[in-house]
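thread: overnight batch results

M.L. [08:02]
morning all. the overnight job finished for the chain we discussed friday. pasting input first so we're all looking at the same thing
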Amino acid sequence: MTTPKDCLNYINGQWLPARSKATLESRNPADWRQLVATFPRSEAADVDAAVEAARKAYSTWRLVPAPARADFIYRVGELLLERKEELAQLMSREMGKAIAEARGDVQEGIDCALYYAGEGRRLFGQTTTSEMPNKFAMTVRMPIGVCALITPWNFPLAIPCWKALPALVCGNTVILKPAGDTPACATLLVQIFHDAGLSKGVINLVHGFGSEVGKALVEHPGIDLVSFTGSSETGAEIGATCGRTHKRVCLELGGKNAQIVMEDGDLELALEGAVWGAFGTTGQRCTATSRLILHRDIKDKFTAMLLERTAKLRLGAGIDPNTDLGPLVNVAQLQRVSGYLEVAHVEGSKVLIGGKIANDGDLKHGFFFQPTILDNVTPNMSIAREEIFGPVVSLIKVNSFEEAIKVVNDTPYGLSSSVYTRDVNRAFQAMRDIEAGITYINGPTIGAEVHLPFGGVKQTGNGHREAGSAALDVFTEWKSVYVDFSGRLQRAQIDNH
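M.L. [08:03]
and the structure it wrote out:
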């Protein structure tokens, strides 16, 4: 058993307890008896201190040349690589993710660092023509200010990196408010930023409840931008507050993602994608495959294949390399998933496998739920429309490709989607007609890469994208610059017409 970690806030380059001295606990979801870390229960006063530090640091950090800022980001990537296994082991203990996936989570942070270090020498604007003689026109990117980054527990390293790295390379300062289920992961990540040599106040860390710390950040007049990943319900509240206070806001919210399998698809390949998409990270991904839309000609065969494969999946502690599915992150999430199975029963769907809390043997002290397949599901059911965020997938039968597209789109969300077909015409129709920010052809709904935009439509977000060069549009403002070297007043739209 590893010695529990004593986590602290990181404000203005110092590790500090909450001003109230109050603390909270982070426990291993695979065995709740194991204490992973204690961390501060911060309040508005701690947020005030972090904002003050970030505002002061912004006045100098924004003037550091972007390639020099990128040098710090590159160093973060090097340190993440050096400490990859340590981070992965901690992540697996703290939030339950299977160790191979935890290593992938850290690798995503490394990839982000290398990508955004490169952007420090790009951050391109545009030069363009002017309608007036002897006049020059261009656009440049400007930092926004102090950014509040509110991140979830399911990707406790990758998502903070998605947000913090582009924010910093663009010249902003940041305050990270991590999820209460993964404070130790956030603490080790910020330690790495500290070790990379960032100046005091450029990055700050404040632990605590979302209802206390998160709310204080969103409402604080010293915050210029809020970037939030989480539920659509909370995102709507944050968006409303930021609208009233004229803050920039980036929301990455829920999903109800679907994989279509057509009668001409490669069923073995589609099976691999369905199992990985539905049960990877125990279904706790915003891009998880929650619906399998199956053509009637292959539904029975594919269902039998899926049942056989699912029955072989192994539940256990994420730290065990033989584990396929780790635990759900906490007891509330376990109760949520279990509650949806009761809803499924009432709505008339059929449990083909799983459907119960797993609490026998070594699993009895953890938050485990059996991988579950539901049949006889129709598109109007709650389980086909609401985000469950657990190892539960619903099977929906369709009679045609056109019906499959209609079912995919029949949800309030629009994050990720997938189609298995050998028909190139269908593939391009799916790319055009599916209402989602991400579409995979012959691949699962999970597996985004850091250099492409990430985000969705409808209730999945507010139109912004994370990752890739699109994230630069979140963390910068465009400025148009005109240089008139004519030596006289020139009136656009007047003197040239």
